[in-house]
Each structure stands twice: as C-alpha cells, then as structure tokens.
Amino acid sequence: MATFAEPAGTRRPPKGRGKGRDKPVKKRSTWWKTALGVFFTALMLFPVYWIFNVSLTQRSDLRKNPPNIFPVDPTFEGYEAVFDQQLPALGTSLLVGLGCVVLTVVIAAPAAYAISLLRMKGGKTLNFILLVAQMIPAVVMAMGFYAIYVRLGLLNSIWGLILADSTIAVPFGVLLFAAFMSGIPRELIQAAKMDGASAWRTFISVVMPISRNSALTVSLFAFLWAWSDFVFASTLNRNGDMIPITLSIYNYIGNNTTQWNAIMATAMVASIPAAILLVFAQKYVAAGVTAGAVKD
Amino acid sequence: MTVASAAAPAPNGTQPKPSRVKQVRHPNGSPWIAFGFAAPLVAYLLAFYVYPLIRSIDLSIHDYNVRAFVQGNAEFVGLEKYIDVLTSPLFPKALWNTVLFVGISIIFQYAIGLALAVFFRNTFRLSGILRALFLVPWLLPLIVSASTWSWMMNSDSGIINSFLGAFGIGQINWITSPDTALTAVIIANIWLGIPFNLVILYSGLQNIPGEVYEAASLDGANGWTTFWRVTFPLLRPVSAITILLGLVYTLKVVDIVWIMTKGGPANSSLTLAVWSYREAFGTGQPAFSPAAAIGNLLIIIALVFGLFYVRLQRREEH
Amino acid sequence: MIRKHSRRYAAFAAAAIAVGALAGCSSSDDTTDEATTGAADGGSADDGGTAAGGTYTWWDPYPQHTDGSDWGNRVQACGDEAGVTIQRTPYDTTALTNQLLLSAQEGTSPDVVLLDNPAVSTLADTGAIISMDELGFDTSAIDENLLAAGVVDGTAFGIPIGANTLALYYNAEILDEAGVDPASITDWATLNTALEAIDASGKRAITFAGIGTEEGSFQFLPWFWGAGADLTELNSAAAVEAVQLWVDWLDKGWAPQSAIQNSQNTAWEEFLDGQTGFVENGTWQVNSAAEAGFEADYITLPAKDGGAAPAPTGGEFIMAPAQSDEARYDVTRQIIECMTTPEGFVETAETFAYYIPPTAEGQEQFIEAHPELTVWVDAVRAAKGRTSDNLGTDYPLISEQLWTAVQAAMSGAMSAQDAMDAAQEAAAAATGN
Fold it and tell me: Is residue A4 part of a domain?
C-alpha cells in the first residue's frame, strides 16, 4: 500500500491550485456567509440547546409555564450522575460504532465495486434485494438474530452486537458506494487494466482512493447508526458486561418516574466525543482529493 | 490520469503476462472475479437477512397470537391477515397519513439538505465546523430528541408556543390536537432527516469536477442558472439514491412518532409503520400477525419505488 | 504478489467461513437446542442447569435500580440464602415483555420475572409461566383483591410484590387561596365546585395523564368505575358521563391541553411547578410530594355519587417462567419466598416509595414503620384489579379501545358518546363477544 500512497500524495498540488482559484471570490463574500451559516446552525441546533437547558433544570421547573429560556438556578446533579455511572457505556458505544464502521466498509465496498464497475451478473437483482433488506423492521431482524445467536453463543458479546448493528449500514453502504463508483470514469479503470493491474489491484489502488469521500460518508452513517441503535442492543446485549449508552440511559427511566436532567446530561456528554470525531471526519472530507483525482 | 499511471507500475513488473491478455479479451473482467468481490456480501445477506424475511412472511400468514407465538403452533390462515388489514377502517387513514408523512418529509428534507449542501460547498470561515455541527442531532439517542420535540411542542409549557405567543399567535395544540399532530411529527422528522440529506448531497457535490463550474461561469451563467443547468442535472444519480433511501427510511419511522404521540390522538398521526408497531408492542396483547402483515405491505410499497428507481437508472444509462 | 493473492484468498476464505457458519447453525439445531434449554440466557457455560448451586436468572422492569443498589443487593441476598447466584437483568417494560416472549419461544426463559400485573393473565394463557401451585408456593396470605390480577380460572399465576394505587394530590397553598377545603370534596359535584373556584383564583385547577397507553386507562378507570360503569359495556350512560367529566375539564380550561398526551410522570412534573391545584397520581410520588416546594397532601379519588372511587391496583407481579428442567423450581420457590416475607415486603415498599405490602401481616409491619401512610394502605385494600371481573386476557383489548376513545373525545375528534360507541364496537369485535 505504501508505494501507492506516495504517488497519490504527490498529486496534492491541484487542490492547492483550486484553493487559489477560489480565493478572490471568497474574500469578498465570506463574512455574510459565515453569519448566515451560524444562523442556520443555531436554528438547527436549537433542540440540542434545549436538551442542554433541560439537563440543568431542577425537577420543579421542568414544566414551568412559560419555560425558562436559560437555566436559571441550574442543578448539576444530572452531570454528576453521568460522570459517576455512564463513562464505561460511552466507551462501549464508541467501540461498537468503530467496529461497525470497519465491518461495513470491508463488506460493502468490494461488493459495490463488483456491482458498479465489474458489471457483475445479477448486480441489479442484488441492488434490489438490498433495498428489500432495508425494509425489514429492526424488531424482526432482532428476533432473527436472537434465534441465531442463542445457537452460536454470541448473545451478550460485543462482537455479536457489532455484527448485528452492521446490518443497518451494510445495504445502505453497498447502494451508496455503487452510486458513487458508477460515476468513476471507465477510462480510468481501463487504463489500470491495460497496465496489467488485476481487479483487486485496481480496486485497492484506483477505485478506493477515489472513493475516499463516499467511504467516509458510509463510515459516518455506519458509526451513527450503530451509535444510536437501541433495538439490537436491547434484544441481544442486555446481559452483557458492556452495554452501550442507548441502553444505560434507561437507568434514569423508572417505571413511574423519569430523571430528565440525568437523561439529557447523558445525551449531552455522549455527543461530545462523537461530535469531535465528526469535526475531524468533515475536515478530512474537505481535504480529500475528490474531483481533482479524476481530472487531467 | 496521473493516479492510474502512478499506481500501475508496481504490479506491472511481477504481473504475469497471460492475465493481462485475458483481461484485454474480457474488458469487464471474468464474471467469477466480480462474484468474488460480492461473495462476502452475498454470504452476509444469506446469513442475516433470509431468516428474518422468511420469519416476517411466516408471521403474517399464520395466526400468531401470544400463545401461538410462544408455543410455535400457529394456525395457517393464508392471506386472511392481509385482508383484515386492508379492509380495516384504519387502513385508508393510516395509508393517507403515511403518504403525507413520507411525501412532505422527503420534499423538505431533500430541499433543505440540498440548499445547505450548496451553501456549504463554498468554503468560508468556520464552514467545516458548522457543517459538522449540523450532524450533532444525529448523535442524540432518539428517545432524547423525540422527547425534546414533544417537550418544545407542549401546548401549555412548550418553548415553541411561548415563542409564537410573543408574536401574538395563540396557543397551538401541536401534539394534542388531531388537526396538528401529524404536522408536529412531520416537523420533528424533517429535522431529523436533514443531516442525512446534507451529508450525501454534499458528498455528491464534491464529486462534481470544478472545471464544470469554471466553464459555466465563463459562459456567463449566474449562480442560479448554474445550479439548475449544471449542478442539479449532474447530481441526479446521487439525488435519486438519496430520495430512494430517504423514502425507505421514512416509511419505517416509528420511534419519533411513537414517543411524541403514539399515533394519536384519535389515530390522527398513525402511519402504517406505527400501526404495525402498535399491534405488536403498543398494547398489552401483542398481535404479531397483523403487525407482520402491515410490515410486509410496507416492504411491497418500497419495492414499487425500488422498481421505479431501477427503471430510472436504466433510462439514465441509455 | 504473494501478498496480493493471499488477500484475495482471505476474502474468499472469509466468505466460505460465513457460509459454513450459516450451514452449521441450521444443521445443528437439534443438538444446540438441547444444550441451551433451561440454561441461563446466553447459554453461559458455568450453568449446568442443575438445581444445586449454579446461576439463576432474574428479569425485572427496574433499570433505575442498577447493580449494587438496595434492590439489586436484596435480590442477590435472596440468591445467597438459597445457595445460588442470581444474575439480575433489568429491562424497560416494553423490552421486557418482548424479550420474555422471545425467550419463551427459544426455551431460554429466566427463572424469575417481574412484570406489570395486567400482563400476568396473558402470559399464563401462553403457558410461558407456571402456576403458584405448581411451584409449591402458598398464596393464602395475600389479599384477595390484590392477588386477583394474577388469578386465571381460579389458579394464581403470580403474586404481587407490592401494590400501589391512585389518589388526588393537592397543593394546599393554592386550595387555601381559592378558599377550598379539601375535606369538602366527597363526590364529583363538590370536586367540580372546587375546581371552578381554583380556576377563578387564576391557577390551573387540575392535571392528569391521558396518554394513549395503558397508563391512560389506569388513570381513567377510577372515574369510569366511580360513575358505576363496567368494562364490558363501554358505551353505557355512566361510562359516557365519566368521559364527559374529563372532556369538560379540558373545555373549561380547568385542565391543560397537554393532559391529552401526558404520562403520569409529566402530569406530576406539571404539578411540581406549583401552579396547579390537583393532580391525579400514585403512591410512588409520596416522597417527591414531601420534598415539593409547597405543602402537598392527598385525598382519595371521589366516586360520582360520593364515597371513594374504586381505583385500579398497580404494581408488578413476580412470576416463575416454565423451565424444561423442573428441578429448578425448588430453588426458584425459595427465592420468591425470601422476597415475600413480611419483612421482605416492607423492604420492597421502602425501596419503591411506596409499594403497599399485599399481605395483612406485611401491612401491619408497614403501618408500624410509616403510620402516616395508613391512608394508602386503606386505598390499596379497597382497590380493584384491572383484569378482575373475569376479564383476564380480554382486558388489554378493551383497555386499548378505552384509552383511544378517551383521547379522541378529549381532543375534540369525536363526541364522548360517539367515541365510546366506536370503542364498544371495536372491543366487542376484538374479544369476540
């Protein structure tokens, strides 16, 4: 791999040139765009702010009419509970999410390559099956997994959960990879073949680098879906020593009482590491040589 | 073609000639090679999807009440459960609600997602971070985000009504009135779907070569015409898959509706998926067979759209 | 080049293994089935499935009580006493019901399960749980009205670990201000007069939970039964009158619109804000009421023509799911007995603020420790099981129609009469009567 990474790396200049090209336009209009962007983001994130607000609210003020826009007289008991109890669950969720990303990309990318670029026989049918597969309700899927895992002894194992969670993302991953890969110019693939590269070589050193963008998109989704899964975790992993955050949040929902500030605090704390991950992933997407790799 | 030529030399040296000749002869490669790449996926599908799918059909053509579910001796009833569902007075209502829920959600999610993707395509100060922040709603467990929406839409102590009140708009009973409950869950669902659309469409925009825009601007096209003449057509394949997937995912949305309204009041926000869930888990007496029948009807609806998509794709290729 | 080839082979090998695993799992059904039945969920190897020693599994709907909590420790202590280890798993209620049916189907049921009482008759009907007779557990000490929810055709299939019920909490300061004497509230007419007075004083009069789930029916039943209505006839004049009572509260602005979708927890939070006169809520809020920023007290729910309305009993039942290895029942019985001694009941009561003990002996000890809660003990003694009156497995079907109709009437989608007519028709169709 290393030998291929280098030549690809030397291809960076076009991107720098692109930046220079944008510059004059950018300078002029950047301020109002930032302002507008901040406004949109604020609007979008208002519910998130509201979660933050509730996470600091005393129980007696929860249903205040009209509500407090700012947490006047805040309480931190929700956060105390979270830092006492929820950190291991957070780690589990991260592990499951990352495991799911790896598994999804490993299965989906080659299959999409076969369907979109190698023109596999029956590829259309496969696409179609994937579509149906996504429609099966998660609960029915979970019942199926339960029956299989009881027999394989995979219940309550982290690997079992990763495998189950990946079923949310794999069909999506194949469809998305295929949609993007079909946009790769055929000449590129042909040229690789003319140079004697095998299908596998072409995949690893031509197709995948170009598909970096879609790989990141698929990874992002695989991570987010695994991160937010409740049904599989609840059916397959309840007894495990490591339970993800979506389950442990139920520690605050009793049969008759609900500790809202702890629930909301959990959601806030849990979203921080994932948000940091997102910011980095986005940076990487932006830096990715995308269109540039195909041109010239 | 720098990538290709840079990548090629290394295998060149050791690659046996015959294979090269063979590949020239079969420009698309041997069918077995293609199957090899897809094999893990096929195995994966067989292992994990076939059983649930069969199970789902099996549940719907037998009379699985709770007792039969546990004991596994359900009576075969053929299509009776489907007929029950289709002739139920709830069916037309749930179907229409589903059409509204899915249709309106998709239109707004896509339009807003695309607008934001185009907006964020221009790099400006903070654009990367702001774009990433747009995904934060997705990191929240659904129970939290859905509860928060019902909190904000509370008739009496909700922030939305208190905000609207400041502009002289009277109390709107978002989730407690049969007139607005569906609107309320649609709004929440649109919010939830924007990140999905933004990510895919933004990714699609990144794949459009910059020269295309350069050419367009040399031709004197302004931003608006560039969008309609260049961006939008080039984005069509990605748009199609985004809408199709959005459709599939929206058809099966349960959690957010369930947490906010339970499909009520008076079934005013009952969609097919929520109905299916309610039959199976919403009452003290689980009825798995009608639930599975409704679920399978949803699969068929998705299939129809899938066929439509495949035809669209074929036309694109010609 | 070797690397390249080995990679491709690795991919094929992985696929082959996956296919092999699939084939293996379908062909070895019979043998593995045998190995997992009767064993703990997850088929842990240290569990031989024999009665002596080993691990016993316990599921309950209390995720808020984590391992190491008072409740968790008590469960463990009862395991220790019986000479076994208890593996306790808490689920939220919906997930627990789901998981229980799934495990019954796969033969991996837990040894002990706790679940909300209307579920008992449904589970008994499936054969997933065994009767208390079969377990060898003596139920004679348990109050008949509290045991009723667990009785199917004269046989008890579970016992309450405690019982709770509903009452009308009030904010004493608001009532004072409006000149309302809580003692004057004895029937619906006097209650309405009180609500009107509070409304006139500028506060919200009352709130309750009308949510479209079993909770909604639970809250509505005292008014329904208090009007003299019967669950077998949802559109009787008395039943419609009860619905109209709630509808009027909303129409007159005495109750908030949000009551239509409120859970009991949300209704309680509204009350805690200190701007509401009354709230219908349960025993479990006693501690929270004492900590409220105002003086809160409670009265029994009035029936239409005076006296206390029959409130439904709430609370979980303890049950023993069927096992293929019947030798396990002996230890299961010991565990359940340990949890249900009079002292055990009082401890449970305190853990769950407050489950009233279901036996006379337990109630005596409880009142000794908490004399201020005598009212609740009386209320629980007078309460009525939801699946009683021989409704059994019909109750969930009727209840679903009931909450749907009440919501429809309150939200203005239908008149009370039309809603209850439709409910009766649907309930009759569903129960086959």
Answer: no
pLDDT > 70: percent of chain A: 85
Q: Which CATH number fits domain C55-160+315-382: 3.30.750.24, 3.40.190.10, 3.30.2420.10, 3.30.300.30?
A: 3.40.190.10
Residue A14 lies in a domain: no
Backbone angles phi, psi at C47, to 5 degrees: -110, 100
Chain A interface, best mutation among C12, C257, C273, by max A CB count within 10 A: C273
Residue A256 burial class via C-beta count within 10 angstroms: exposed 0-12, middle 13-18, buried 19 and up: buried
> pLDDT, tens digit, for every residue of C272-291?
999 999 999 998 888 889 88
Kindly report, residue by residue over B79-106, the tens digit of the pLDDT.
Answer: 999 999 999 999 999 999 999 999 999 9
Q: Do C404 and B70 touch (CB under 8 A)?
A: no
Residue A30 has pLDDT above 90, yes or no: no
Name every residue in A having a CB less than 8 A away from some CB of C.
59-65, 85, 110, 139, 143, 146-148, 150-153, 155-156, 198, 200-201, 234-235, 238-239, 250-260
Q: Are residues A36 and A146 in the same domain?
A: no
Which residue segments constitute the domains of chain B, with CATH numbers given? 25-78 (no CATH), 87-317 (1.10.3720.10)
Topology classification of domain C166-313+388-431? D-Maltodextrin-Binding Protein; domain 2 (3.40.190)
Q: What does the alpha-carbon distance between residue A75 and residue C328 come to, in Å, rounded to a whole number?
A: 48
Decide if A18 is inside a domain.
Answer: no
Task: Please report which confidence band the pLDDT of residue B19 belongs to, taking 50, 70 and 90 as the band edges.
Answer: very low
Under a CB-based contact definition with an 8 Å cutoff, are residues C404 and C430 in contact? no
Q: Where are the domains of chain C?
A: 55-160+315-382, 166-313+388-431
Under 8 Å between Cβ of C168 and C300: yes
User: Could you tell me if A202 and A192 are in contact, meaning their C-beta atoms sit under 8 angstroms apart?
Assistant: yes
HSE (side-chain half, CA atoms, 13 Å) at A269: 27
Chain A nearest-CA distance from C323, in A, is 16
Cβ-based contacts of B284 with chain C (< 8 Å): 118-119, 122, 214, 395-396, 399-400
C212-268, pLDDT tens digit by residue?
A: 999 999 999 999 999 999 999 999 999 999 999 999 999 999 999 999 999 999 999
Indicate the average pLDDT of chain B: 84
Touching check for B15 and chain C: CB below 8 Å?
yes
